[in-house]
Design goal:
Layout: H1 2-19, E1 23-24, E2 33-35, E3 46-52, H2 59-68, E4 77-83, H3 85-95, E5 98-106, E6 112-119, E7 121-130, E8 143-151, E9 154-162, H4 171-185, E10 192-197, H5 202-210, E11 214-215, E12 230-235, E13 244-248, E14 258-263
Parallel strand pairs: 3-4, 9-10
Antiparallel strand pairs: 1-5, 2-5, 3-14, 4-6, 5-6, 7-8, 8-9, 10-12, 11-12, 13-14
Helix pairs in contact: 2-3, 4-5
Length: 270
């Protein structure tokens, strides 16, 4: 009886998730939201932040963190996940960044859920990449947002992504989601930065490393609860390059920590 009592709430949660009406945005063209100023910055190491702001609930707290934390402030690139358009526009406007945002889906509560890339520079091109394997419960399609941008005197390809959870997608399915991103980035002749919430650590990292990417956030430790799921992978950085990285306490703004990397990408470098 005790086992039944423990199992029943879980079954109800899973059943509710399975019936939740998710509306996926499967058009590659949109919805799309973009704006903010194009700006120039002096050549220097590029500071990238990736931050899953849980369901875009605590935008004020997230913005305060991005402004005040010394490892996060003045970031050149910010990859955001679990966002809606209003939250992205508010953060980009307050920080003076150009942005592009694509929602992956509308949740049961009507709020959009997707990824954004914000840059201190100029966005030259952007696109949405639909990832394979809709979630088992609710059927949500995950996406990556790809951007080619001029940042700190360098042209970069940047991805903000959010892979399926262990509940929704198998390890093999997540690897195929990574493969879709790798395939999209294959032809890029500029440095590639892939950031986001991967809902996994070692398996995803192995897939990127096998494709020639370097794992910039291997040592960041926990990024959500007991897990290390928020990461940055790099391709096209100098072979001798070293970087600094870490994870900042979100101070209640999210269930995730904000992960940062400082990458030495000087203008005109390889």
């Amino acid at each position: 009886m005790r086992r039944l009592a423990l199992a029943l709430p879980l079954a109800l949660v899973l059943a509710g998730s399975a019936c939740a009406p998710i509306r996926n945005y499967t058009d590659y063209a949109g919805p799309r939201y973009a704006g903010g100023p194009a700006s120039a910055s002096s050549p220097h190491a590029v500071r990238l932040v990736t931050f899953n702001i849980r369901f875009a609930r605590e935008i004020a707290g997230a913005l305060e963190l991005l402004r005040a934390n010394p490892q996060l402030k003045d970031a050149d690139v910010i990859a955001l996940q679990e966002m809606d358009s209003a939250g992205v526009e508010r953060i980009a406007g307050a920080l003076g960044l150009a942005y592009v945002y694509y929602p992956a889906a509308a949740r049961a509560d009507g709020k959009d859920f997707g990824n954004a890339v914000l840059v201190r520079g100029t966005i030259l091109e952007d696109h949405k990449l639909l990832l394979p394997h809709p979630g088992r419960f609710g059927g949500m399609r995950r996406i990556a947002v790809g951007v080619t941008a001029e940042v700190a005197g360098r042209r970069l390809r940047i991805y903000s992504t959010h892979l399926g959870t262990p509940k929704d997608v198998s390890a093999a399915g997540r690897r195929e989601q990574v493969t879709a991103i790798l395939r999209d980035a294959q032809g890029a002749d500029v440095p590639v930065l892939v950031a986001g919430d991967f809902n996994n650590r070692d398996g995803v990292a192995r897939a990127f490393q096998e494709a020639g990417f370097r794992w910039a956030t291997r040592e960041v430790g926990r990024t959500i609860a007991l897990f290390s799921w928020d990461h940055v992978f790099l391709r096209g950085v100098p072979a001798t390059a070293s970087w600094r990285s870490g994870a900042a306490d979100s101070r209640g703004a999210s269930d995730h920590r904000a992960v940062w990397v400082e990458v030495p990408l000087a203008a005109g470098g390889p």
